[in-house]
Structure formats: structure tokens, C-alpha cells
Amino acid sequence: MTVADTPTRAGVEKDIRAFMAKYTPEIARFGRAARSRVKKLVPGGVEFVYDNYIGLVFGYGPTERPSEAVLSLVLLPRWVTICFLKGALLPDPRKLLRGSGNSVRNIRLDAASDLDRPDIKRFIRLSIAGASPPFPGTRRFDTVIKSVSAKQRPRR
Q1: Is cis: bond before 133, omega within 30 of 0?
Q2: pLDDT at position 150, please?
Q3: Considering only Cβ atoms within 10 Å of each terminal Cβ, which end of the chain, N or C, has fewer?
């Protein structure tokens, strides 16, 4: 990819609006509000966007390497979920995290305001604190569209 092929920030946001337009207005609104809240809680770094087969995913990591991402926000046709990519390692005495795999845990959100709940904020803080390398702390994000799947499940 040459510099001329590199999308502008406005172009990336235009693409994200088009990805969200595939959802019902309610889920699109929910997704925009949740994304905005997550970006306020994450200290900069890179936001990865995947418009994949199952849903629209926003991943957050300290560098341009997706393997270093620590959390993601997933828009599905009927709900929005926050995923903690190393959630199996997080202390969860109230058993709020769902999942039984070796690493990822998630919480299905009822509203974007759920991201303001102390338990969810704590999971986000712990995920960020456990990132290796650490997040840059600049509050500036580079948003990168990593992939767009040609085949997708219905979004409405």
C-alpha cells in the first residue's frame, strides 16, 4: 500500500458509518454510543475495525499489531457485546463475564450506559493495565480498517 492508498481519517469514518448503516437504526445508534464511550476509557493506541461475517468488531490495542489488542466491542444484529480478550485472567467474583474458552470473556450490553457501570469499567481498566506493551496514553487513536468480509450474515 502506498501513501496515496492510505485512507484518510474522514474516509475511514465514512466507511464505518456505511458498516453501521447495515444495522437497524437502534443497534447503529447503540453501537455509535458504545464506541464513543469505549474510546473515552481507552488511553489511545489503535482501534481495529473488522466488518466480518458475523458482525462489526472494533478492537483496541496499544500498537498496530492486532495480536496485542486487549478488548473489543462487537455489534451483532440484536445486541452489542464487549469482549475482554484475556478475560479468563480477570478477577470476576460476581461472575459477570460470560464464556468458557481459554482466554476471551464477554458481557452483553443492554445499553451504551452499561459501559459506565463500575464493574465493567474495572474490567476495562484491568485489561488495559495488563496490556503488553502498554498503551501510549495519548488519547489519540489510529483507526485502521483491517478487513471487510465479502460474505456477511444479515445485519437486520
Answers
A1: yes
A2: 82
A3: N
- pLDDT beneath 70: ranges in the chain: 1-7
| Sequence-ordered alpha helix ranges (H) in 43-134 | 118-129
Over residues 3-45, the pLDDT tens digits come to 445 568 788 999 999 999 999 999 999 999 999 999 999 999 9
Q: Is residue 155 part of a domain?
A: no
pTM: 0.91
Domain count within the chain: 1
DSSP lists the bridge partners of residue 59 as 48, 72
Is the residue at 156 inside a domain? no
Please indicate, yes or no, if residue 79 is contained in any of the structural domains.
Answer: yes
Residue 51, H or E segment: strand 45-51
87 found inside a domain: yes
Our CA dihedral for 83, 86, 88, 89, rounded to 10 degrees, sits at: -140
Nearest to 39 by CA among 111, 144, 143, 148: 143
